[in-house]
């Protein structure tokens, strides 16, 4: 399954500050990761958010919103 990955920053409210290349869907994590640098791993089925090498959130892709 093809995938893309890219860095992202977590805002104080737990929402991601996404790079311009990322579609407009909104993803979030626990606020304890605020201001952390994370990695987004996106496949056609889901988006996984990793802090260092730990999975901290998983969201199904919503193609109707992208």
Describe the structure.
This protein has about 70 residues and is mainly beta. The protein is built from no helices and five strands. The chain is about 0% helix and about 45% strand. It starts with a strand and ends in a 6-residue tail after the last strand. The model has no long low-confidence stretch (mean pLDDT about 75).
In short:
The chain has 66 residues and is mainly beta. 0% of the residues lie in helices and 45% in strands. The model has no long low-confidence stretch (mean pLDDT 77).
The amount of beta strand, in percent, is over 45%
Q: What does the oligomeric state look like here?
A: single chain
- Uncertain runs are none
End-to-end Cα distance, whole Å, is 19 Å
Helical content class = under 10%
How would a textbook summarize the main sheet? 5 strands, antiparallel
Secondary-structure element pattern, one letter each = EEEEE
Beta strand count: 5
**Overall pLDDT, averaged?**
77
Rg estimate, integer Å:
11 Å
Structural class: mainly beta
The number of helical elements comes to 0
Query: Widest sheet: strand order?
Result: 2-1-3-4-5
Principal-axes geometry comes out as globular
